[in-house]
Amino acid sequence: xxxxxxxxxxxxxxxxxxxxxxxxxxxxxxxxxxxxxxxxxxxxxxxxxxxxxxxxxxxxxxxxxxxxxxxxxxxxxxxxxxxxxxxxxxxxxxxxxxxxxxxxxxxxxxxxxxxxxxxxxxxxxxxxxxxxxxxxxxxxxxxxxxxxxxxxxxxxxxxxxxxxxxxxxxxxxxxxxxxxxxxxxxxxxxxxxxxxxxxxxxxxxxxxxxxxxxxxxxxxxxxxxxxxxxxxxxxxxxxxxxxxxxxxxxxxxxxxxxxxxxxxxxxxxxxxxxxxxxxxxxxxxxxxxxxxxxxxxxxxxxxxxxxxxxxxxxxxxxxxxxxxxxxxxxxxxxxxxxxxxxxxxxxxxxxxxxxxxxxxxxxxxxxxxxxxxxxxx
Amino acid sequence: xxxxxxxxxxxxxxxxxxxxxxxxxxxxxxxxxxxxxxxxxxxxxxxxxxxxxxxxxxxxxxxxxxxxxxxxxxxxxxxxxxxxxxxxxxxxxxxxxxxxxxxxxxxxxxxxxxxxxxxxxxxxxxxxxxxxxxxxxxxxxxxxxxxxxxxxxxxxxxxxxxxxxxxxxxxxxxxxxxxxxxxxxxxxxxxxxxxxxxxxxxxxxxxxxxxxxxxxxxxxxxxxxxxxxxxxxxxxxxxxxxxxxxxxxxxxxxxxxxxxxxxxxxxxxxxxxxxxxxxxxxxxxxxxxxxxxxxxxxxxxxxxxxxxxxxxxxxxxxxxxxxxxxxxxxxxxxxxxxxxxxxxxxxxxxxxxxxxxxxxxxxxxxxxxxxxxxxxx
Lengths: 377, 377
Prior knowledge:
2 copies of one chain form a homodimer. Chain A is built from 14 helices and 16 strands. In chain A, helix 10 (251-259) runs antiparallel to helix 14 and helix 12 (313-321) packs across helix 13 (326-351). Chain A is of the alpha/beta class.
């Protein structure tokens, strides 16, 4: 049976969960991290390279794909899987976050959003119904409901209205959703108003979606505020459905999410930072343009199986200093591999009831206390 | 024994040769095409992807590497093979062509060239002796002698002086060359003055280099002038040494070179054109931004094993229209694969004494007479 969440084990020391989520295109081991393939491509990463990072599910952005090439073109080219060549599960967001963050002149009413494309100013409309239709045309495995995202900090009134509207929109999305090979996740909103978050989670839970996302976080608030919010939201979500923290985040944010019972994450950070010469390692971030690496024959990270780590730090630095495309490519692959290895290690730690200790070890490394590099930062 | 040219077969209908050239790092099947890895990377192509195109030998540019990161840095990082991870043979040029084409304020005297880097204006000197030293530090398998390249058209006097100087410089390069795991190729100059070309070839042949290059062509002259020049030069070169036509070229130029007995080629065209959305195919070039491909579900080229051809034309177009890095990456890989398949087919055609017919077939396809695409161009 498709779209089944299975709880395999709960860590004895915290709320971390080890589970699986099955879809028509395969089963995803949870907790999982989804690389972001905004426009049908994880920037600079070829399909097989992406597979070899260990990724099991990839995210595509509805907003970007409806603007270019248009969901009808993707559909004519066989849907998102045939289009991109990625055969495993894919999740598409609803466009709600991009309307908030990217589109120009967007106007949001109860009916939906009207906005102009950030590319050429062309006018688009995105209602809950249209978001469902676009995602059905894209033929993703997991579709997100359209939500109304607002920035933080904000007044309680604004946050409450957007939360209430998001619930109404979620219902509209559910009502028109037809594609049987696709499941739909709802999105909990409510800013940092914990009571609103709890209400939203409970109301959406009652609607029985395929999974539940926590949205509207990682939009400028302090990390601890996000963690505190998760402490309130995750207990209010159904036990038997996957939980997805949208757009998060740094490795430490992901561990804190897992610790609180979150199963799924996505973020552009590993790919975007990789393009900008910043590598994630167990000794904390390394900035590859740093002069100290000029003649460094060591790999970026010992034991990492990625192609970047089969070269020297000196070579990687050279690629960035000369503007060679291969620098961003290799570092993106490394960072995605780093995130996937972190998730695999986290899954094992949960299975062995040592997730809390695992986090402590990771933090010690990231804070530089175990490192010997020239830029422990 | 390293650095041995072996003639396997000569086509019965033309001067095309099927041979091998052995180096300490492996044997290259001739005729061969060398992808250009200017600064220690074939732009956008990861090592394994490059191997899978079928490439057996890669070119590195001495000028670019001495400017950044500097040959001493490459040496400290283990030499060009360890630096880049490419374990098969590598050829480095001498910097002569870049001084002609790229460097600023270059001044050439009998001693050598003084120029300013095109990057930051830093002053460099490149004498024959220095070119040998740099290439020994880079630790390539085949080093080129420093030559004096002049543009075409030019006066006979200028061409003759540069040719004579190139011979004197070749001798100086030979005198100081010490690295036993590296062989040295001489470069025939002489512009389109056939008598000068012949003299140059004979004088260099007498010096017994490991191989012979034909330089100073493909610099603006009509293709037929280059072919006519090859008709004069190749018969004047030793039978038992490989022949390398530098910086060439289009698929048809390569076939015409092979037809006249050339064994080795290099050119940025497959990679540069690939980055600019132009694909080489048996039906001639395709321009991937063309609107006709928007919903085209067919692959770029039937039967091509490259990753670009496992997607649709519509997807490739989308990548270019949205500026995704993966577009240039995939098309570079396709074009390099196309060139390598062309060389493999050419080698087989020579073995079977049908190289002339093979060329005719290829020309028929490229001219569009067998194509059914929307832009046969």
